[in-house]
Write a structure and sequence with these properties.
The chain has 188 residues and is of the alpha/beta class. The protein has one domain: Rossmann fold. The protein is 34% helix and 11% strand. The chain has a 5-stranded parallel β-sheet, sandwiched between helices. α3 links the parallel β2 and β3. The longest helix has 16 residues.
Amino acid sequence: MSRYRAAVTGTPQRPLLFLDVDGPLIPFGGAPHQYPTYQEAPELREIGSNPLLARINPEHGPRLTALPCELVWATTWMADANETISPRLGLPQLAVVTWPEASDTDEQDERNGLHWKTRALVNWAAGRSFAWVDDEITDTDRAWVSAHHHGQALLHRVDPRRGLTEADYVALNDWLHRTSDTLPPAAA
């Protein structure tokens, strides 16, 4: 009797990290004097005239790229995030979630407390493990993702007054490493 082993092809995919801009990278909501500003290179000042861009800490770039994940913009900045935010952080061009047109389902979701991004992110992930970093995540979003997403997911809420902090990076790094450790080994 002959035995066949199923061939494992390809390599496991790293988890996705869906990243919002306003709140996590551009803190807001407190008194303007409480936010540090960062010196921008002259060529970056010409890219976008939003005065809040000076609140983006350039140290986020190396911190984000060090995480064991694939970064994806999940923001209303959409493609502008690659043109305006990525250069300030030293990030390459990232994939960008394109938001679907509003529908009756979205209105019902909103009445039920579900964030308008939640369904789109679960659809975009298509079963792949993901972390979502945003300042508007609620327990309703967590419950919906738990019920409708077949992969692992971390919905990580960031305080918009502080933006991403050391504690946020520790939580993300720990979860991403645990998630990466559960992926099947790559074929030799």
